């Protein structure tokens, strides 16, 4: 297998880090913010998370969590970025960030999700965040919807099950496009849009026991998001022709578990189910292979006249994706299942495993980049990649060689893919500062270059502490990827 002796990244490559409002901001009830879907997700203990983690809520759980004042809901307090953003952005600037990915909390702008007039205090907060980024020459990369459906839309419409949510999302997006048209160039519509079929509550604020058609609801909601994405892409370019609007996919390269042709076909089908979402958002049309899938699985998608033409007319400008692990699939059931959150496969004996059971596969990122570029021929942006691990503070220091090793090998494979011919414009590691885990709402699963003194229950000083990886990543950026 060829490996470049010298890894060359293009000039202007966008190095940085990625976060989400619901995992860092806190201040869930400050300055007019409304509740969003993640404010109701409780901490999941180690015992509870054995096997597959449910990231959905039943009606009973939803109503209970709305009123609960005793349970631990870590995304409500995050890491207090809301009050500490200047300190944190200064740390990112010290590392040399060119770009910082953040989401705008929809419920901070429109507390219920469907008001006509926005919350000025919410808008002003993001003005301040973007101004602080520009102070250090950092480009904001903004996700419009990062699993943060306002609770008001969940209660009124069952989230994205209803087509009516499209209009509210378009109103929200138009509001922030106009407000930040001179401060933000790069936008993402929906974070990991494919998650909506794995966890309808996470991806779309949908409570399954309230859905009219539970079998079809994930794909129906995805269609509503496709339409919304096309509409806001159109509007974004009308407001500022320099805007770059991307889609975002949770990507795991899927391998056949054996050489059995049945397994090879299965892996191809699973890859297609993953790439269906980008087929629609980049190519602008539903792929033919999904017709058979919908028919065989009793899935019915209701479209309005003009939907297909809209999708074709307003595809995204670039494709972004998260990559943490690859998956293996097999019809041979004597193979043990790997651990993970929403995406699981068979254990791949050639790969090492993280503390959380995710198999580590840097070469899979090169494979993914090459496959995506051949398939779509649009710029690619890796907007999430990182290692969740237990960190120990020893004499005021965190020696996280394991994180450096993980990131080094993945970045090396990005460089290889660029040499292969893939057009890769940037890389934002997840998350550059310790934050609340998406799937389990814990702090123990740490990703950052910066340690935050806070435990799973929100206790601690919130002091920020640089890890060894902080200084390593600073050198990587300064050398544009040559010094790994």
UniProtKB/TrEMBL annotation:
Active-site residues, as the UniProt record annotates them: 384
Keywords attached to this entry: Glycosidase, Hydrolase
Entry-linked InterPro entries: GH, GH_1_N_CS, Glyco_hydro_1, Glyco_hydro_1_AS
GO CC annotations, alphabetized: cytosol
Family annotation (PROSITE patterns): GLYCOSYL_HYDROL_F1_1 (PS00572), GLYCOSYL_HYDROL_F1_2 (PS00653)
Any one biological process term the GO annotation gives: carbohydrate catabolic process
A Pfam family it matches: Glyco_hydro_1
Gene Ontology molecular functions: beta-glucosidase activity
Recorded family membership: Belongs to the glycosyl hydrolase 1 family.
NCBIfam families: PRK09593.1 (NF007158), PRK09852.1 (NF007356)
PANTHER family in UniProt: 6-PHOSPHO-BETA-GLUCOSIDASE ASCB-RELATED, GLYCOSYL HYDROLASE
Protein name from the UniProt record: Glycoside hydrolase family 1 protein
Source species of the chain: Sporolactobacillus shoreae
């Amino acid at each position: 297998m060829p490996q470049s002796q010298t890894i060359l990244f293009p000039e202007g490559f966008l190095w940085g880090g990625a976060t989400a409002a619901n995992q860092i901001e806190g201040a869930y009830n400050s300055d007019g913010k409304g509740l969003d879907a993640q404010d109701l997700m409780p901490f999941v203990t180690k015992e509870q998370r054995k096997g597959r983690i449910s990231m959905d809520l039943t009606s009973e759980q939803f109503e209970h969590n709305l009123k609960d004042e005793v349970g631990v809901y870590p995304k409500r307090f995050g890491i207090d970025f809301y009050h500490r953003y200047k300190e944190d952005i200064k740390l990112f600037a010290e590392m040399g960030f060119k770009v910082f990915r953040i989401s705008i909390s929809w419920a901070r702008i429109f507390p219920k999700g469907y008001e006509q007039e926005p919350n000025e205090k919410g808008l002003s907060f993001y003005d301040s965040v973007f101004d602080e980024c520009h102070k250090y020459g950092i480009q904001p990369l903004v996700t419009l919807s990062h699993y943060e459906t306002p609770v008001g839309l969940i209660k009124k419409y069952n989230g994205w099950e209803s087509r009516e949510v499209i209009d509210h999302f378009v109103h929200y997006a138009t509001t922030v496009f106009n407000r930040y048209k001179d401060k933000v160039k790069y936008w993402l519509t929906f974070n990991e849009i494919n998650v909506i079929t794995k966890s309808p509550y996470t991806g779309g604020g949908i409570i399954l026991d309230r859905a009219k058609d539970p079998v079809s609801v994930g794909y129906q909601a995805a269609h509503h998001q496709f339409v919304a994405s096309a509409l806001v892409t159109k509007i974004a370019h009308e407001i500022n022709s320099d805007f770059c609007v991307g889609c975002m996919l949770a990507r795991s390269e899927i391998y056949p578990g054996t050489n059995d042709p049945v397994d090879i076909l299965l892996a191809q089908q699973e890859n297609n189910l993953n790439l269906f979402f980008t087929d629609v958002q980049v190519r602008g049309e539903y792929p033919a292979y999904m017709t058979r899938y919908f028919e065989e699985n009793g899935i019915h998608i209701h479209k309005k006249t003009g939907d297909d033409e809209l999708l074709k007319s307003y595809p995204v400008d670039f494709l972004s994706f998260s990559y943490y692990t690859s998956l293996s699939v097999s019809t041979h059931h004597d193979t043990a299942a790997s651990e993970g959150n929403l995406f699981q496969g068979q254990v791949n004996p050639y790969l090492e495993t993280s503390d959380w059971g995710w198999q580590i596969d840097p070469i899979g990122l090169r494979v993914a980049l090459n496959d995506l570029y051949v398939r779509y021929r649009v710029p690619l942006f890796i907007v999430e990649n990182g290692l969740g691990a237990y960190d120990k503070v020893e004499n005021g220091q965190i020696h996280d060689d394991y994180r450096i090793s993980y990131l080094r090998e993945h970045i090396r494979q990005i460089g290889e893919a660029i040499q292969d011919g893939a057009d890769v414009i940037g890389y934002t590691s997840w998350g550059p500062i310790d934050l609340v885990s998406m799937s389990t709402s814990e702090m123990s699963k740490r990703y950052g270059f910066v340690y935050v003194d806070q435990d799973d229950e929100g206790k601690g000083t919130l002091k920020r502490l640089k890890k060894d990886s902080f200084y390593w990543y600073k050198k990587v950026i300064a050398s544009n990827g040559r010094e790994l």
